[in-house]
Amino acid sequence: MLANPSTSTLHYRPSSTHNPPFIHTNHRCKLSLSPNCPRFANFAKSKFSSLSLLLSNRKLERLFTVVKAFEETSVVNDGPQSLPQPVSVKIPVGDRHILVETGHIGRQASGFVTVTDGETIIYTSVCLDDVPSEPSDFYPLSVNYQERFSAAGRTSGGFFKREGKLKDHEVLTCRLIDRPLRPTMLKGFYHETQILSWVLSYDGLHSPDSLAVTAAGIAVALSEVPNTEVIAGVRVGLIDSKFIVNPTTKEMEESQLDLLLAGTDSAIFMIEGYCNFLPEEKLLEAVQIGQDAVRAICNEVNALVKKCGKPKMLDAIKLPPPELYKHVEEISGDELVKVLQIRSKVPRRKALALLEEKVLSILTEKGYVSKDENFGNPETVADLLEVEEEDEEVVVDGEVDEGDVHIKPIGRKSAPLLFSDVDVKLVFKEVTSKFLRRRIVEGGKRSDGRTPDGIRPIDSRCGLLPRAHGSALFTRGETQPKTAVLIFFDDRSCGTIAGCSLAEDVSILSLAVVTLGDKQMAQRVDNLVDEEEFKRFYLQYSFPPSCVGEVGRIGAPSRREIGHGMLAERALEPILPSEDDFPYTVRVESTITESNGSSRSEAIKSAIVVVVQLEYRPDL
């Protein structure tokens, strides 16, 4: 309890150990009591008795009135709470079953599940913040997946024995989980959601990555997160012309295909994998077999959700008012059409920003947008609801008048934002996308004037860096990646070579570093299996903020950079010569120097150019 001498008000702040469901932890609650409360004498003798000097008799009476009501309610809420009951179900997948269990561990999370395949066990939890974040055009979802060495009965061989930063393959699994789940989340839900997934046990045979995708999909389906459909994931292999769903690691050693896909009972949302030059018909057949397996899992999970799933927080979804779309379209209209016809990316982006400010300014002048920066903030709304009246009626004899109780139930749903500046910006972005799509579908033209099937001009240059073993500059339209190949020799001493910078119509800055050494320069991979793994070829992709003319973070590679690098690496690895014919460790760096669209394909193309150059090196 806190006293405010200036207002003669006593406030109660709910503690973390006692938080009744009708009190929101982020808001103050005014309390009023009657002096006839049975605990008045004890309270007067307590260390809080000095507070009576700050309060009038009238307010002291109100204080004790509501504390009594609060204590009575607390007794009810402190009683035994019903926890989720353990439920388990076996789901057939391929030639075996997976075991799905919920209600055993992690019961304070919104959704929690353990999925077992053989002796591989994945535990996944889903939690969401009580307070919604600022409205934005993306869903506030974060995914973390971690493989603990204890799952395989091992301890890390490094200096630090505790798991810390995620490894590259763990980051890739996080992206596998995120990609199919994000499209199922409903728009307008801004409570930050976190999915945590751990490998608790690993038997070395049953891969945990596809199992983690399924576990995350089940946990979200059981939680309060408002999503549309259940997600599941499977891996498909091809051995001796026979497709196998969720093959073991031993079977994958002989497989010509490694295809991981995820989706719902009616559609595929994500496909990732690589193969050894399979025909398109075989790949489509594998997708169909994977879809059938995903459908079977989703049907079983839907039955589980009906049995023990939590109600979805549909009342927390907050979308911009429909009337706002009409106002934004009327104001931007013809001017937006002209802006979308600007061919160059940077001028078009600046023109759109100016038009957005113009729309916001006009709506503000017309009174449609609040000028208060805190408008729509949940705490601000709560303060507006707390209206202190000095002349309220005194409550006596411990009777609680509902009109005098200032404890206001505050649920997870925030107060609606009506024509806030954030809403205007979100609506303007949606209207812009609508106009751009209409231009492409009806007019057959993109913003740069190309047809839907038109290709931007392509140009490539080789041998730009004199001290690198191979280099190339690949240009498609306004997208420029520069790639350098770094090769580690097994018969020379270690050394370092610095690269140089390039300049053209638009500034291009690149740094290449070549280290010469033996096979020890191969990338060591630390995994759950107690076997050393080395990569003689690896591709590292970089996307600096300068390539889009922005200022941003520089440091460890982002998850996006790791994912794009692995995509290009898998595309190039099958075309490399064998280690006997080419006994070198190969490192490919692909740096995007300009970006005006997707840059992944350009990274692959430029990397192919530099790898092919190695064939024409007489010294190799």
What is the secondary structure topology, with strand pairs?
Elements: E1 2-4, E2 9-12, E3 29-30, H1 40-45, H2 57-77, E4 87-93, E5 96-102, E6 111-117, E7 120-128, E8 141-147, H3 168-181, E9 193-201, H4 208-222, E10 232-239, E11 242-245, H5 249-252, E12 257-263, E13 268-275, H6 280-308, H7 322-339, H8 345-365, H9 378-385, H10 421-443, E14 458-462, E15 470-476, E16 480-488, E17 495-498, E18 502-503, E19 507-508, E20 513-516, E21 523-525, E22 533-535, E23 537-542, H11 559-572, E24 585-594, H12 600-613
Helix pairs in contact: 3-4, 3-11, 7-8, 7-10, 11-12
GO molecular function, one term: 3'-5'-RNA exonuclease activity
Protein name: polyribonucleotide nucleotidyltransferase
Pfam families: RNase_PH, RNase_PH_C
